[in-house]
Design goal:
Shape: elongated
Structural class: mainly alpha
Number of strands: 0
Number of helices: 3
Largest sheet: none
Length: about 70
Amino acid sequence: MGFAQNLVQYKKSLQQPQNESALKEGSEEEKDLCKNVRRVMEVIIGLLKDRLESVDEEPDRKRARIEEYYSKK
């Protein structure tokens, strides 16, 4: 079902004139999109920060930290 829905949305996007935005400015959909993009960016930045912090760690401490992270999930 999801794949077919994506195809329908793709076809509709092709019919949309390219000079118009798919979202109305100030609409709830645009606000939700911005909020979700911000959350994704926060996750990416957090992962990059973790990566930078763990560069200097010893391998055993790093492995323990990663195992602790996965055990919380």
